[in-house]
Write a structure and sequence with these properties.
157 residues; mainly alpha; elongated
């Protein structure tokens, strides 16, 4: 007879911390993942835009919330590439908002603060604050989600 296996209680795998909805996100994971993925996103988009148009996509334009700047640099790009770029951006939006919500919870503030990820320009301030706030003792998320955690994830889904 096999002994009962204890549930794993260590840190969640990196994929769960990045793509998941319930894994805790501490400040070092939040900062490293955020800066790393922002760099990956910029380099991949700048490379794709250069390959498709020959135009240079500078970092300040990348950080701008104005869609007109992006459309100007992508003039002449086929519609299918714009659809693929939009899907690529949805992946990063999910990662950004889910990690921001979970990081806010980990920092002991309302997870709803993480929704400011969608507010242009304010999102940069939010990310800096979330990367600096220390971890606070919070109850671990348990499934099924309840209370404000359930409301938050229902809104995001």
């Amino acid at each position: 007879m096999l002994p009962a296996l204890d549930r794993y209680s260590g840190p969640a795998p990196l994929t769960s911390r990045i793509l998941g909805a319930t894994a805790e996100v501490d400040r070092s994971t939040y900062a490293a993942t955020g800066f790393g993925l922002a760099g990956l996103k910029y380099l991949s988009e700048a490379g794709a835009i250069y390959a498709l148009t020959g135009n240079f996509f500078d970092p300040l334009s990348f950080l701008s919330p104005l869609m007109t700047i992006r459309l100007d640099v992508m003039a002449g790009v086929d519609g299918i590439w714009l659809v693929l770029l939009a899907l690529w951006n949805l992946l990063f939006a999910w990662i950004g908002v889910s990690m921001s919500v979970r990081r806010a919870r980990n920092a002991g503030i309302s997870p709803f603060w993480g929704l400011l990820f969608f507010a242009p320009l304010i999102n940069f301030l939010l990310m800096i604050v979330l990367a600096l706030l220390p971890t606070r003792t919070t109850s671990r998320l348990s499934l099924p989600l309840q209370g404000s955690d359930r409301l938050m994830w229902s809104a995001l889904m």
